[in-house]
Predict the 3D structure of the following.
Amino acid sequence: MEGRSLLCFAHRGARGHAPENTLSAMRTALELGAPWVEIDVFLVDDELVVFHDERLERTTNGNGLLQKKSFAELRQLDAGNGEQIPTLDEVCACIDRRAGINIELKGGGCAEAVATALERWVAQGWNRDDFLVSSFDHRQLQQFHRLAPEVRIGALHCSLPIDDACFAEELDAYSVHPSIEFVDERFVADAHRRGLKVYVYTVNYYDDIARMVQLGVDGVFSDYPERILSKR
Ligand code: G3P
Ligand code: MG
């Protein structure tokens, strides 16, 4: 177990320490030394907003469905500690190439907007490898991959498929992102045989971190990135 390190993704920023998916969560992730942050995006009024839930209640002072609101209405809300819901552009500016960004496509219809936004950031000096785009919505992930074939994609899933990581290879993914609830030795071995990295979500407890090292996974998403980084 010793000597093998896990790539660390600060989940929704460092959400164990700051309101999730806010700029302060991104800054905290950087302060903790996370090499990657993971964020969730929806498209609203042609703007990519960084937000996890379909509904507003859990993480803001608003209510109802995010996608029923205008961008202007969303920007009035408090996403925690008085912060606004950020845009993808604001997160990229905040990170400023000090960490990679895993962008998880949440709402429908955001593949094209994300592909366009990333090209803009690449034109401003980012590398395509500074980004990893993932989704549970494999149709949208495939659409993104066709639009931006040089940006790496990761296939999220929350099950133990009968043919293991085959679906991710078929998508031409760089990585497969299983839930900690379902990942096992056979799945990891199969993914590695297919040349896929295995990044597991969400890994917060020390005994789970040790189990992931034992399983030989390549990286984990954690609300507490310092717990992963201290294991190096
Ligand atoms: O991308 C890893 C993880 O964020 C996937 O699940 O629900 O936290 O977006 P969720
Ligand atoms: Mg996510």
Residues 11, 38, 40, 52, 104, 134, 156, 177, 201, 221 surround SN-glycerol-3-phosphate (ligand 1) (CB under 6 Å). The radius of gyration is 17 Å.
